[in-house]
Amino acid sequence: MLPADHQALLSAVCSGQAPLPVKASCEQWGLSSEPGQVEGARARLNRLVERCGLRKTPAGAFAPPS
């Protein structure tokens, strides 16, 4: 079971077809685009890459599992 914040980010990324930059996922999640918020979301998304199979593109955007 994932924490609620991880579930929200996962659903934000999986709702689109194209890879989603971290800043855009923060906006969909209702966070501000301040650097601290973005870096926290990036850390959570990186954990989801390891735990749930999210894909991280070379440009740093996140995409649903393939």
What does this structure look like?
This protein is mainly alpha-helical and about 70 residues long. Helix 1 packs across helix 3. The two termini are about 20 Å apart. The longest helix has 18 residues. Strands 1-2 form a two-stranded antiparallel sheet. Helices cover about 55% and strands about 5% of the residues. Strand 1 and strand 2 form a beta hairpin. The model has no long low-confidence stretch (mean pLDDT about 85). It has 3 helices and 2 strands; from the N terminus they run H-H-H-E-E.
Describe the structure using short key phrases.
mainly alpha; 2 strands
What secondary-structure arrangement, pairings included, does this model have?
Elements: H1 4-14, H2 22-29, H3 35-52, E1 55-56, E2 62-63
Antiparallel strand pairs: 1-2
Structure described in brief:
By secondary structure, this protein is mainly alpha-helical. The chain has helices at residues 4-14, 22-29, 35-52, and strands at 55-56, 62-63.
Rg, Å, rounded? 10 Å
Order of helices and strands: HHHEE
What are the low-pLDDT stretches, counting only 5+ consecutive residues below 50?
A: none
Strand arrangement within the widest β-sheet reads 1-2
Class per helix and strand makeup: mainly alpha
Average pLDDT reading: 87
Strand content: 5-15%
Q: What does the overall shape look like?
A: globular
State the separation between the terminal residues, measured CA to CA: 21 Å
Helix content: 55-70%
Q: Could you tell me the number of beta strands?
A: 2
Number of helical regions: 3
**Biggest beta sheet summary:** 2 strands, antiparallel
